[in-house]
Amino acid sequence: MQFNSWVFPLFFAIVYAVYLALGSRRYRVQNAWLLAASYVFYGYWDPRFLALLALSTGIDFVIGRKLEASNDEKRRKWLVTLSVVVNLGILASFKYFGFFIDSAAVFLNAIGFEAHMPTLRLVLPVGISFYTFQTLSYSIDVYRRRMPATNDLLGFGLFVSFFPQLVAGPIERASRLMPQIEAPRRVTAGKVQSGIWLLIWGYFKKTVIADQAALVANPMFAEGAWQELHGLEPFVAVLGFTIHIYCDFSGYTDIARGLAKLLGFEFLLNFRLPYLATGPSDFWARWHVSLSTWLRDYLYIPLGGNRGSRFKTYRNMFMVMALGGLWHGAAWPYVLWGSYHGVLLVLERVILDVSGKNANDRDYGLRGEWVRIVLFWIPMLIGMAIVRCDSVDQFWHMMTHQSFELTDTARAGLLTYAYFSWPLVLIQLAQHFSKDLLVPLRLPVIGRSLLLAAMILAMMVFGVREPVEFFYFQF
Q1: CA Rg value for the chain
Q2: Are residues 325 and 396 in the same domain?
Q3: Does any domain span residue 2?
Q4: Domain co-membership, 141 together with 246
Q5: Fewer CB within 10 Å: C terminus or N terminus of the chain?
Q6: What average pLDDT score do residues 7-31 get?
Q7: What is the separation, in whole angstroms, between the first and last Cα of the chain?
Q8: 71 with 92, same domain?
Q9: Is 419 exposed, middle or buried (0-12, 13-18, 19+ CB in 10 A)?
Q10: Of 139, 169, 185, which residue constitutes the final position of a domain?
């Protein structure tokens, strides 16, 4: 079930009405109701996916209990290894088996061997990358004794499958979400108010900005069309995808956080104005924060982080970003995109090491900050082109067939982006200068009501009618 489908509002209305009727005193019954609703939500795509979800839940619940009960370090290492192998094995089987087999076949054919490789075409379960990382973090944290194992199977099942963030995040930590599940929630007026704002803002970003940008950009990347792009058209295509992917993914996150607030929960903040980043490390402190911090805590630091030599630090940064790219998708463009950002992070770190400065230094004025923001858009757009292009030839064409010629197609695309994106620019500038992501809620009641009404009207008039699947569902 998609947030932007016609059935979801009815689904949530029923879930929410029963949830409120049960009352916070019966929070365990509320948990059972939310768990049932989450399985209905996920099974709406394909009921067969529910078996994997239940399997992942059961394995890590049992392993967590055994890790908690054991003081034998050898046994505990075996148990956490089992969790890692099983979870990543399931993920690899469904998401990466075909990719590695196809890549091996291409390589063998390239060096002169005729390869007849086995094929296993499995349907990729929606959101498997997200809930796999979520359950893994639980087992690892229990192993590290950073949190106790839960003995509440129902609550743990809700942690794994909670429908607002099940399919596309944010990737929650058990240490943060389980205490909310295992205690009564209060649905306050403040949470309802901010939840409604996040819901409307998220739907506006998705249906009005992201989907409209995709209508312009996607045809330009199509086979037979990208070969004809020239002038500013390649730039317009990449810019459209850049607008689309951010408003699509952050829109989903806003909706998820809004739904959670209406239910009395608090989710991680997954985006902090990433297109106002001043450099690579700042970008990854703002973009998909739940993933970047997961990779830091469960991959970068265990690899050694920055505790070794400079070379090992650079190696660890690059490896983590390359694997982060592979997490996004079983295709070489994603690996190259992650590797590209790994190179950017390493180059930034080399410059900082040589100059003796820190990435968090803010010894420049407002003008210097905006210069860095504008300059970082160049490598960022190149990265967006890498992840969007389907082949090296397509990427090379996009990079080499550009000029300042403003064709009719380029002009129409830029005008479309400007027409639908100006509210995003204004609101995010207000959030940036006020250092408050909920600054629209600080408006007077009349101003706030007019803003929300204007966005609802815009969705009714300009929103793409046919539901368009969220981009990150494929991950």
Answers
A1: 23
A2: yes
A3: no
A4: no
A5: N
A6: 93
A7: 16
A8: yes
A9: exposed
A10: 185
For residue 364, what pLDDT is reported? Answer: 44
- At CA 348, angle to CA 344 and CA 350, rounded to 5? 115
User: CB-based contacts of 267: which residues, under 8 Å, 6+ apart?
Assistant: 164, 165, 170, 172, 256, 257, 260
Cα 471 to chain centroid, rounded: 9
Residues 181, 195 within the same domain = no
Among all residues, which ones are annotated catalytic?
328
Contact 124, 474 (CB under 8 A): yes
Same domain? For 139 and 212 the reply is no
Same domain, 329 and 274: yes
Return the SS3 of 177.
Answer: helix
How does pLDDT run across 149-159, given as a tens digit for each residue?
Answer: 999 999 999 99
Report the length, in residues, of the chain: 475
DSSP 232-300: THHHHHHHHHHHHHHHHHHHHHHHHHHHHHHTT--PPP--S-GGG-SSHHHHHTTSSHHHHHHHIIIII
Residue with tokens 């007077």: 444
Q: CA 161, 176, 56: angle at the middle one, nearest 5?
A: 30
Asked whether the whole model's pTM tops 0.70, one would answer: yes
Is the predicted pLDDT of residue 116 greater than 50, yes or no? yes
Which of 185, 204, 230 finishes a domain? 185
Q: How many domains does the chain have?
A: 2
Measured CA to CA, the distance from residue 391 to residue 118 in angstroms comes to: 24
If asked whether residues 104 and 234 sit together in one domain, one would say no
Q: Assess if residue 1 is contained within a domain.
A: no
Same domain as 210, residue 162: no
Question: Interhelix angle for 211-221 vs 408-434, to 10°?
Answer: 140
For the stretch 83-86, contacts whose Cβ atoms lie closer than 8 Å and that sit 24 or more positions apart, written own/partner, are 83/59, 83/135, 83/136, 83/139, 83/140, 84/136, 84/139, 84/140, 86/59
The reply to whether 428 falls in a domain is yes
Residues 6+ apart with CB under 8 A from 164: 255, 256, 257, 259, 260, 263, 265, 267
Range of the domain at 338: 191-474
Instruction: Classify residue 149: in a domain, yes or no.
Output: yes
pLDDT of residue 63: 95
